Every structure is written in C-alpha cells, then in structure tokens.
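JOB MANIFEST
job_type = single_chain_structure
chain_count = 1
residues = 499
[input]
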Amino acid sequence: MSYRNPVIPGFHPDPSVCRVGEDFYLVTSSFEYFPGVPVYHSRNLVNWTQIGHCLTRPSQLPLAGVGISGGIFAPTIRHRQGRFYMVTTNMVKGGGNFYVWTDDPRGEWSEPIAVDQRGIDPDLFWDDDGTAYFTCTNRWKIPMREIDLATGALLSEPTFLWNGAGGHYPEAPHIYKIGDYYYVMIAEGGTDYGHCETLARARHLNGPWERCPHNPILTHRSKNDYPIQATGHADLVEDPQGNWWMVCLGIRPKGFHACHFLGRETFLAPVRWVDGWPVVGNNGEIALEMEGPDGLPPVAPQSLSTRDDFDGETLPVHWNFRCNPAEGSWSLSDSQLKLRCDEAGLNTMEGQSWAGRRQQHFNFRATARIDFTPCNEHEEAGLTVFQNIHHHYEIALTEREGERTLIVRRTIGTLSAEVASMPVPRGPLTLVMEGNEADYRLGYAMDDAAPVMLARGETRYLSTEVGGRFTGVYLAMYATANGQASGNSAGFDWFTYDA
C-alpha cells in the first residue's frame, strides 16, 4: 500500500489513535476553537473522515478568558469494554485535566470528569488485570497514578516513569503493553524543529526502564533539506493484521527562511519491530510518499473540493467558532449562514461572530457569496484568512463616506492598514481568496464575471515563526460592528473550498 503524507492536512496537531475491530478513531488538539477535539474515522489509516467532536457544549468546553493558543491541549483517545474515553487538558484558568466518554463516537460525549492532577498531555492505560492508570507531564516529569474512571478519583500516590533520553521538555507520554514488555513513549525537544520521539521498555510497569538503543525512534531535527520537520508527539496502533503504525505531528515549512503556516499536521508511518524495539518509517524518518504494510482497505483518492450551502439544521463538522460563540451571534435560516454584527472585532479574543474552516492545502481557492448592507463605517462583514487576533488578512464590505465599499486590510502585529478599497453596488457579491506557498490574493466577483483581485499578503506573516503559536491558518466568514452596538447581520449563501 502506498500513500501520501500528511494523512490529515492542515491544523491537526497532537494526534492520538485507537482501534476497535476494523475501525480506527483519531483525535487532535483544538486549542481555542469550538467545538473542541475533532474526531476522525478510518478503515485504512490514510483516508480519514471527520465524524464529529468530543466537546460540543460550553459546559464541556468553557473558553471564557482563553488566550491565543490556549484552550484544549493534546488529547488521548482510548477504548475499553465498549466505551471510548478522551482525556485532555483545558488551559483556561479554572480548567485542568479531565476526560469525557461515550459509547458512540459519532454521537454526544459525557460531561467532563475532572482529574486532580496538574500537568498536560494526559494518557490512560489499562493493565492486564483491568487497573486503570492516569499519566501526564507535570513540570517535565511523568507521574503515573491509579484512577477510578467512574469518578475521576486518583487512588494512589504518583509513581514517576522514565523521563526521557535527555532532551528538554519531556512530554506527551503514552504507555503500551506489547508482548512481555511495558513501553513508555514520550516526545522531547519541544514541539519545534528539535522535536523527537523516544521510548523505553520494562518488564514491570514500575520499571526499571531500559532505553531504546536507537533513540530517538523518530526525528527530523538537523535535517534542514527535508520537506517535513518537527516530527513528534506520536501514538502507536496495531491494525487487524498485526502490523503496527505510528501517527504523529509534523510541519511543512516553505520559503527562505522557512516558515510554516498551515499548522502542525497529522502524519502516518509504518512501524517494524526488531528485537523488541520499534523501527519507525524509514529508520526514524517520515516521507511525503510512503509504502506501508498490505492488508488494509485500499487508499481512495481524497476529495479536494467542498461546497457548503448552509441549508441544513447544523453547520457541517469541519466548521469552527473562535471561543464559545455568543448566544444569537449566528443562525442558519433561509439557506444562509447569518452572522450578527456584534461589538467584538477580529482583534478581540472572545465573542466574535466568526465561522471558519482550516486551510488544508498550499494552493487553494475559497469563495463565499455574501449579502450585506452596512449601516455605518463601523459595520463590516466578509472573509478573513486568520492566524490569530494579531495576524490576519481580510476582504470585507463596509461603508465609507456613505457608499458601500469593499476593503482589503492586512494586520501584522501592531501594524494594521487598509491596502485596497473600492465602492461597489448594493446586492449580493462573491468574495474570493486564493493562496499558494508564498502569497494570499483577495478579490471579488460580480455575478458570473471573472474574479478581480484587489490585493495580496505574504503567507510568511501568518506563520508560526512570525506571529503564531500552536495553531494554523483558518479561512473564515465574519461580521462585526467594531466596538459599537448594532442589530445588523450578514448573510452568506454558500462557501466553496477548492484545492
């Protein structure tokens, strides 16, 4: 079987995977975006379909007071005796480690069950006798404690597991029982260009731990000519034929000096076992094109186009809000997505009337049909290509000197400027965004006419290296009154994404 990486492109970091029969389920981090923790399903580990989210209610995911790249950090998904568990960390003040459960990963998940253990990157592991253990990273140590999964109560004092091969920031622990050995696998080096994955094994869960002789088992550090960088934060899974696989995060930097803006993505590598130790991919490396074990369902071509007509009762699962959306800030009616012009603007952390989807390809075109009549110069609505509140570009309708006007704005840190504007007649309008590895172009189209591009903005200034933290770029529809009270709203008839 041959396949292409990344298997889930765009902002999908910190993947965790489990298998139930012939079905694989995967979750990734979601940070300040709502709903939280997307859930994916696959039969072959390559073709993934999003089937929902773990955290769909504000009671599960309160984000008031969240900062940039706050919210939900790395989740772990596990299955035990017919029940799925997802354990993670909410980095909002008053949050912490918790888990939710469900018997149907396509449906709703439980209310959160808190775990009184500080740290991040939690993991769940069941020993052969059924005892459940909770593990995380706390002050760069790896504590493990017995847990009652009915209540979240911790039943033992912490036992500290193997702490890595000497790299900084040991984190993201996962425990496995494979054959006669217990294995603990962790990430080291920080989730950056020095990222790596290391592993140790022991005959007993409490050690002593024996380092893998070829640690790190996965890394692309110091390989500056590789198209994939920062590989790590991995999870292992066995397929029905007894073959082993690893999912991990990685980035695809572009340009000089290299920057990445799609975010940390989900990659896949086959795993061989040699003398009781895992050999990942091409001897610790992952390629864009890879060969894997046979026996799984064949890989199908991935669709590169989507169109959302907003004629259902709910938004499709690939749409997110920034933070918890304010009540009444959006609705689906008359086959439109309607966004209210609330006071919060694009530079505000919470309360935006904003609905976005991940950018998943370097070369793409996104279009949206908008119907909006601004009442004053404070109101605007349009499309934004969005890294965070300090780094974004948008094309929007607003009012200037009594005329409806189309503007393009670039915000880069503390610098913000309208770089293009033109009056446009009232009525529906199609907004257009196009992107490649170096630039975004923003424009519009009237009826069936060809798009007119008004301005451009470099991808570099929306990258993690320049202005980001842990998230990738979103393409979003929005409406705002920029600090003023308003009862106006914008209607979006459809949104298309073509890669």
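[summary]
The chain has a mean pLDDT of 96.
The chain has no helices and 40 strands.
exit_status = 0
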